[in-house]
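User: I'm writing a tutorial on reading structure tokens. Could you give me a worked example: one chain, its sequence, then its tokens, then a sentence or two explaining what the tokens reveal?
Assistant: Sure. Here is the example chain.
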Amino acid sequence: MKTIKPYIWFLSIITTFIVIISCQNDLSTSRDFLIKVDSIHFPDSVASNTPFNIEFFGTIGFNGCTKFKSFLPVYKDNKYTIGAWGTYDDKSGQCPDMLVLLDGKKLNLTVPSPGIYLIVIQEPDNSSLVVQIIANQK
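And here are its predicted structure tokens:
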């Protein structure tokens, strides 16, 4: 009888641990992804310290469970590196077939001083769409 009691105690600890671990698993199928940007529209030149818009075009996804999430711009050394992020979430279980587009989604930027700036758009295949913009004195 004495030898069975430690085994029962050990098994109950293991069972409790497994239950705690399984309760912490996220059952959500939500995940973020980098959107393929086909093109952007922007002014040929801008005034420094004056906001301007860049419009993005491309396909976010092919069903209603995909949507635009955010732009992630990073500025360093006269270069903006920008990721257009989408999210996929099929929690509802219903993802109607449809084409979901960026369709001119706007990102507002400001360059700090006159000069030549690069705009680098990150693509999901590790390539980049690179354009140049000139900032004039305000």
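What the tokens reveal: The radius of gyration is 25 Å. Strands lie at 31-34, 36-41, 45-47, 52-63, 66-76, 79-88, 97-101, 105-109, 115-122, 128-136.
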